[in-house]
Amino acid sequence: MSRVEILSETIRLDQFLKWSGVAPTGGRAKLLIQGGLVTVNGEVEQRRGRLLVPGDLVGVEGVGEFEITKSSR
């Protein structure tokens, strides 16, 4: 599991996939999410706008799992 720091209190799922480097574009993030390849806290999530907070776990099939943490900056 990798930890990914975010700079704000929340981040949208599609933005997180781009921020973490999993998806190079928003379009690719959308395809991953709508294809059922993304989980949030163990549940398949198909809403691009799902708000994530520090402590959430995001899994991407074939890529891995990521824990969201808040940046101390």
Structure write-up:
The protein is built from two helices and seven strands; from the N terminus they run E-E-H-H-E-E-E-E-E. The chain has helices at residues 13-19, 26-34; strands spanning 2-6, 11-12, 38-40, 43-44, 51-52, 57-60, 64-70. The protein has 73 residues and is of the alpha+beta class. The relative contact order is 0.31. The mean pLDDT is 96. The strands form two sheets. Strands 1-7-6-3-4 form a five-stranded mixed β-sheet. It has a two-stranded antiparallel ribbon with strand order 2-5. The termini are far apart.
Mean pLDDT: 96
The biggest beta sheet reads: 5 strands, mixed
Strand tally is 7
Widest beta sheet: strand line-up? 1-7-6-3-4
Helix/strand-derived category reads: alpha+beta
Percent range of helical residues = 10-25%
Strand residues, percent = 25-35%
As a whole number of angstroms, the C-alpha radius of gyration is 11 Å
Q: Which regions contain 5 or more consecutive residues with pLDDT less than 50?
A: none
